[in-house]
């Protein structure tokens, strides 16, 4: 008995390590963001370091929150899944409360915290991904086999999207719908069942664009921005000119011309264009490579967590990877003119307090997932080394009794009568043939 107690103590004492590739990619992107925010915002105010100082403060707060998240066990977070969902609805409703909600350019997306404003949807992205991950764990078999289990997350995200469209925030609405669809597929939902609700949502969003004049102008201006260069196509044409000026190696750090009050939102939505102008095609390839490393490593981590039957951790990694990947794709696509203009920042790089802080929290969650995965792997290795050394007392071993064919048939009939055959075998997500 003492040997077993010592072995259990030894296993419990084994910790894990954070994934160096995830941490390195996140730190590199955040460091690049500090440099580019300083460069792109230098001419926006009388104090050339105003936005840089704010950005550094928010990064500091975000790093502190990320550190706190890395100290929390994922199982403790999973237990509070219902509170996370209530938090999503509360954060999207509170912006409509007079005195708390704040309106900027006709959109009510912020709450006033006194010293700063906080965009609540950034926190909703993190909370929703964690809740959806816990839901897929609790109903992973039913999501694959029944309509109600699959449609419940669709209904939840539908309500969240309605609240977002009332603000209005079309970009975040599309992002949440994309994350939900992809996570349901990874969670085992059948594609033929996903297609119908996805098609309905796409048609609904298309109608919202068609019947809203300012959204329709964005679509038409994105298709030919040069037709109204000084009007609806002003942002995109200046962004394309900035990218074109960068050529292969860029004009040099700090030497951008388009950021000098020509390109609107140069330090937030269109910071990629400034980077392309100053760092050129080579710099852009490095940036895209860092995002590819971050998202690819998160997907790799999620896949290996699923293989170890750590589904909650795996789905969190999948969800954050989808969020960062989709938002990066949309932000870069808007700057390149391949997507209509959306108010989405470039994760970890663009200036924006709410986005920076909550992206740091998401990175903290990813690092926690990597820590627990590494800890589980190390404990399994030690367990495999210990088990062959355990001395087993000489006791008679009960031999398995033969089972008759009649008993097997009776058990199968009983299972069918209870409806167990309705559930299909669990379908795990796969990438490139890995299972």
Radius of gyration: 25 Å
* Largest sheet descriptor: 3 strands, antiparallel
Mean pLDDT: 84
Order of strands, widest sheet: 1-2-3
Strand content: under 5%
Span of the ends, CA to CA: 38 Å
Features:
single chain, 435 residues, mainly alpha, three-stranded antiparallel beta sheet, 3 strands, 66% helix, disordered C terminus
Account of the protein in words:
By secondary structure, this protein is an all-alpha fold. It has one domain. Helix content is 66%, strand content 3%. It is built from 16 helices and three strands. It has a three-stranded antiparallel sheet. Helix 6 runs parallel beside helix 15 (353-386) and helix 8 (147-165) packs antiparallel against helix 9 (170-186).
Quick summary of this structure?
By secondary structure, the protein is an all-alpha fold.
Q: What order do the helices and strands come in, and which of them pair?
A:
Layout lengths: L1 H12 L6 H21 L9 H21 L3 H5 L2 H13 L7 E4 L2 E6 L4 E3 H19 L1 H6 L1 H19 L4 H17 L4 H20 L2 H11 L10 H13 L24 H37 L3 H26 L16 H34 L18 H13 L18
Antiparallel strand pairs: 1-2, 2-3
């Amino acid at each position: 008995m003492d040997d077993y107690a010592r072995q259990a103590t030894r296993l419990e004492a084994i910790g894990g390590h954070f994934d160096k590739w995830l941490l390195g990619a996140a730190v590199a992107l955040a460091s690049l963001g500090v440099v580019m925010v300083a460069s792109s915002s230098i001419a926006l105010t009388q104090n050339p370091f105003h936005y840089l100082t704010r950005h550094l403060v928010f990064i500091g707060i975000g790093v502190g929150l990320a550190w706190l998240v890395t100290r929390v066990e994922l199982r403790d977070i999973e237990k509070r899944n219902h509170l996370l969902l209530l938090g999503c609805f509360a954060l999207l409703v509170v912006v409509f409360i007079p005195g708390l909600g704040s309106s900027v350019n006709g959109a009510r997306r912020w709450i006033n915290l006194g010293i700063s404003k906080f965009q609540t949807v950034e926190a909703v992205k993190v909370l929703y991904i964690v809740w959806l991950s816990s839901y897929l764990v609790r109903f992973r078999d039913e999501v694959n086999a029944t309509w109600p289990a699959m449609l419940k997350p669709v209904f939840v995200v539908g309500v969240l999207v309605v609240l977002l469209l009332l603000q209005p925030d079309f970009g975040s609405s599309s992002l949440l719908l994309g994350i939900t669809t992809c996570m349901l597929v990874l969670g085992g939902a059948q594609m033929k069942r996903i297609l119908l609700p996805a098609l309905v949502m796409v048609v609904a969003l298309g109608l919202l664009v068609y019947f809203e004049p300012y959204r329709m102008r964005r679509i038409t201006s994105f298709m030919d921005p040069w037709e109204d260069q000084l009007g609806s196509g002003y942002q995109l044409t200046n962004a394309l000119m900035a990218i074109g000026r960068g050529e292969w190696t860029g004009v040099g750090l700090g030497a951008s011309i388009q950021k000098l009050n020509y390109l609107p939102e140069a330090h937030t939505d269109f910071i990629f264009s400034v980077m392309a102008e100053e760092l050129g095609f080579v710099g852009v390839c490095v940036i895209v490579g860092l995002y590819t490393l971050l998202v690819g490593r998160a997907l790799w981590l999620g896949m290996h967590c699923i293989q170890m039957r750590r589904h909650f951790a795996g789905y969190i990694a999948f969800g954050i990877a989808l969020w960062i990947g989709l938002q990066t794709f949309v932000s870069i696509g808007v700057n390149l003119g391949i997507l209509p203009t959306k108010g989405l920042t470039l994760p970890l790089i663009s200036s924006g307090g709410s986005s920076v802080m909550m992206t740091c929290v998401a990175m903290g969650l990813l690092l926690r997932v990597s820590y627990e995965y590494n800890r589980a792997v190390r404990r399994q290795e030690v367990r495999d080394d210990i088990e062959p050394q355990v001395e087993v007392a000489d006791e008679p071993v009960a031999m398995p009794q033969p089972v008759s064919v009649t008993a097997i048939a009776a058990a199968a009939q009983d299972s069918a009568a209870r409806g167990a055959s309705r559930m299909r075998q669990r379908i795990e997500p796969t990438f490139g043939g890995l299972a």
